Request: fold
Amino acid sequence: MTPFPLTRATALARLEAFLPDAGAAYARLRNHDRGLGGHVHVSGLSAALRRRLISEEEVTRAVLDRHGMKAEKFLSEVLWRTYWKGWLEARPAVWAGYRASLAHWQERLTQDRTLARRHAEAVEARTGIDAFDGWMTELEETGYLHNWARMQFASIWIFTLGLPWELGADLTLGRFADGDPASNTLSWRWVAGLHTPGKFYLADAVRIQDMTGGRFRPKGLATKATLPRDGFMTPDPQAPRSPLRPDPKAPSLLLLTVEDLSLETFPLPPITAIAHLPGETEADRIALDDALTRARQAFPLAQVLGPLTRATLKDAPAQIVTGFAPLGPTADRLEPLRAEAQVTEVLRDWDARTWPLCRKGFFALKEKMPALFKALEPDLLAHHG
Ligand SMILES: Cc1cc2nc3c(=O)[nH]c(=O)nc-3n(C[C@H](O)[C@H](O)[C@H](O)COP(=O)(O)OP(=O)(O)OC[C@H]3O[C@@H](n4cnc5c(N)ncnc54)[C@H](O)[C@@H]3O)c2cc1C
Reply:
């Protein structure tokens, strides 16, 4: 397993070590896929960012401080994460549509033997396409693929292997150490041509050979794209869910979830108890353990209740404080709890400021970059001072 930064301390150390390369070097080299052990031109921060062991804002501040807008390429990649989160949050129908369609294809897998065979060949890295099988093996071994490799992988899955994108998205959501409902689902949709009308991503054999330093020479790739018939393209955005805000004076239970694992860095109401929502993967478990350790240090008098259950809820303070849960499994798990307890959520300023700008295309957000970064300036100045 790649040593992902899955604690806050290792994420901050990784950021520090990567800073010198986040400027011109990143812009020049980021798309080269050197394979297992060779991903030195990218930050590798995604598993930590996904769980907010470290935040987009912290990464952006540090990179701006070091390079200013010479790091525009890196800064805009971080902003892609923000964009996907905000875009999906405004379109719950896309997440629900993906889940329904996935259930349909999972059912089909149990009935359609040809589909099941082709799917098994892909998942077991037996397609005979060297690049695809190589990336599948790397994914299985490490939980990571380089961004450029992810684009080729998804494209080959959809257009060459003719497999439903939803099954591919489900595979990577579960296997990526950074698996994220928004970045993952919407990137797959983007490759499949479902995000921007008329735009899809077709993998090219010569380019793959080039960008992997000749490691792969794939044969038989599709040369034209047959777009999935999805039924809907892009529903209109709706106002994002408005969370219940914590009463700042009320004694509270701090609920740790994989959506935000550095909440102790915020001003919170008096925390008298700590619980957590167990994660789904080993990476989640490591990150949650780290967050729990930090929360105990930050709130030494709080009672540690362990995993949140009906029984633990009985002894807990009435107000629960947790990080905002965007669409996805955590939000689904919190939903029934809302009827039984006062679940309040901390929405970070970064999300509150950016998500309203994520309703159209990425460039509508990107053009606001200077204004967004200007809002961070007072702290940058304080840092220098
Ligand atoms: C089919 C497909 C599926 C993907 N699934 C996920 C996923 O489940 N979770 C996830 O975090 N990213 C996903 N991505 C986006 C991207 O590939 C990863 O964020 C990136 O490869 C992580 O490596 P890094 O931290 O070294 O990135 P760096 O290049 O160092 O970038 C810095 C940070 O910016 C963000 N970022 C960079 N590129 C993108 C991008 N294209 N979209 C969104 N955010 C980006 C990530 O948080 C990343 O950590 C997917 C992309 C594709 C094409």
Remarks:
- Residues 30, 42-46, 49-50, 77-78, 80-81, 84, 146-147, 150-151, 154, 172, 176, 178-180, 183-184, 187-188, 191 surround flavin-adenine dinucleotide (CB under 6 Å).
- The longest strand covers residues 271-276.
- Confidence is low (pLDDT under 50) at residues 379-385.
